[in-house]
Automatic annotation (TrEMBL):
Keyword set, alphabetical order: Methyltransferase, Transferase
Protein name: Methyltransferase
GO terms classed as biological process: methylation
Methyltransferase domain residues: 47-147
GO molecular function: methyltransferase activity
InterPro entries documented for this protein: Methyltransf_25, Methyltransf_Superfamily, SAM-dependent_MTases_sf
Source organism of the structure: Planotetraspora silvatica
Amino acid sequence: MLTFDVARDWIDRWDRQQEGYLPDREERFTALIDAVEAGIGRPDPLVIDLGCGPGSLSARLLHRLPQATVVAVDTDPLLLSLGRARYGGTTGLRFADLDLRTPGWTAGLGLDRPADVAVSTTALHWLPEHHLRTVYRELAGVLRPGGLFLNGDHLGVDDTTPGIGRLEVAVHQMEERRRFAEGRPEDWRQWWDAIAADPALADANAARGSRTSAANHDGSESAHLSTHVGALREAGFGEIGTLWQRGNDRLLCAIRS
């Protein structure tokens, strides 16, 4: 049985390695949760967290908005195991093992009303464009009119404005160098290699290894801002824009028509 203490320690390590790629990760989390609080207009929103990983965003959101209900969605059994062991006792939080690439995934959310907001951070870039378009169409079907979609990710503009795109990447890289002048934390691959060597996670690792949909989604298939904006417009979202940005790391917001 995966214990609370083991899960807490590994999630703390997860957060540190993620910060190695996202020096302003906590600031982006804060901006996203600010937008939920300011944009929904109720203290008890129903939230869907897409590609939740071990639940880092969901936990922070519920810390700020303890009356919220969050359905945290992922398909990686190891990350879900960590999240359930660490945050399983958190009121208002429920993890859902669903693959966003499988049509009909929204039926597995168990919603009793339309959601007020959907959120995601550093996750949806791994979806190929055709899957991303399908995900956004399904998502629009379970969001209430006026509901929000908030996506924090590296979304580049080099396909439409290459000069600005290069500058955005440079700004992000310069901040990384300043933040980690004395050395970077472990990277993504080092974290997964360390996880694989921990006997406490042997069962979860075996489950992950048998599920290729979990093990093979660490690429950047939909890394352009224009791809997400186009897919959101096609899905029925009206206003779409950037709420927060640092280099090419941005918080994209879309309002359901």
